[in-house]
Amino acid sequence: MSSSEHKIGVLVMSYGTPESMDDVEAYYTHIRRGHPPTEEQLKELTDRYEAIVGGVFPLRENTNGQVAGLQDKLDSTAPGQYVCYQGLKHARPYIEDGVEEMAKDGIRRAVGIVLAPHFSTMSVGSYIKRAKEKADELGIEMSFVEQYHLHPKLIKALTERVANGLAVLAKSAGADAKTKVLFSAHSLPEKIRELGDPYEKQLLETSAAVAEAAGVQDWQFTWQSAGRTRDPWLGPDILETLDTIAGEGVEAVLVAPVGFVSDHLEVLYDLDIEAKAEAEKIGIKLERIAMLNRDPLYMETLAESVQAAAL
After folding, report:
1. What is the pLDDT of residue 54?
2. Fold of 152-288
3. Which amino acids does the record list as binding Fe-coproporphyrin III (predicted)?
4. DSSP letter for each residue of the chain
5. Could you state, in order of their start, the residue ranges of all structural domains in the chain?
6. What's the rounded mean pLDDT across residues 124-141?
7. Which of 123, 136, 193, 309 sits at 20 to 30 Å (Cα–Cα) from 53?
């Protein structure tokens, strides 16, 4: 009998990143459902990774660190009860690999959680579907955390980051600069609105809760990192929003990407390089909040959400 058989497995799921520059093409091919990217598409993505990591690839460590941090938090609150596994959407170990590992270890009961606080059928819902199908196939009873976008400790962690970010911005732009906070998240195809998907509503709820807790009066929500497909995606994009608010006299912007929980391409390139360059061009000083990564309050958010789902 496996020593893990009495434990509750925790499948920690996320989008995934390549492990090295050599893996970028395979990663991009998986995202494109088996269709290899064109040379131009591959070069564009490779150039973006080169710009943020310079050929050294620390991005995977962020997810590994979050999984380890969650394990530590669960061990401190419920010693010996939980064991964490990782499952990625577009890179190894895939979601199915994580479920198989649990089965090999004799796990019979598990909880799945995604490193994304907001639910959408197209994002978190797709992770859950894949994990559930594999768990059912292997005889694992699995429950899921679908969202945790208003967990008090998540809101507190984000509020602290907004307050700190505004302090930094006041120093760099001047305390009298007309300042706005832009909350952002990864765009999805507009058709989710027709489906009654909760993603947009939940993002606005998180943004409003953080703005209120941080005492922010002037804020709005914007989208970023839209895919390039023929279908329209939710907008306006942050680059458009920056142009609009520049015309309204805004001089300084703090970007709070509340839809993301760690440093990766959509933050380090789309915001820190692309959005910052656009802001500089139009005369706006732009700063970004620090990402959650392995923040203790975020680890507690995950642990408490997992334990509630395991009841």
Report:
1. 80
2. Rossmann fold (3.40.50)
3. 15, 32, 48-49, 127
4. --TTTTSEEEEEEE----SSGGGHHHHHHHHTTT-PPPHHHHHHHHHHHHHHHTT---HHHHHHHHHHHHHHHHHHHSTTTEEEEEEESSSSSBHHHHHHHHHHTT--EEEEEES-SS--TTTHHHHHHHHHHHHHHHT-EEEEE---TT-HHHHHHHHHHHHHHHHHHHHHH-TTS-EEEEEEEE--BGGGGTTT-SHHHHHHHHHHHHHHHHT--SEEEEEE----SSS-BSS-BHHHHHHHHHTTT--EEEEE-TT--S-SHHHHTIIIIIIHHHHHHTT-EEEEPPP-TT-HHHHHHHHHHHHHHH-
5. 8-148+295-310, 152-288
6. 98
7. 123
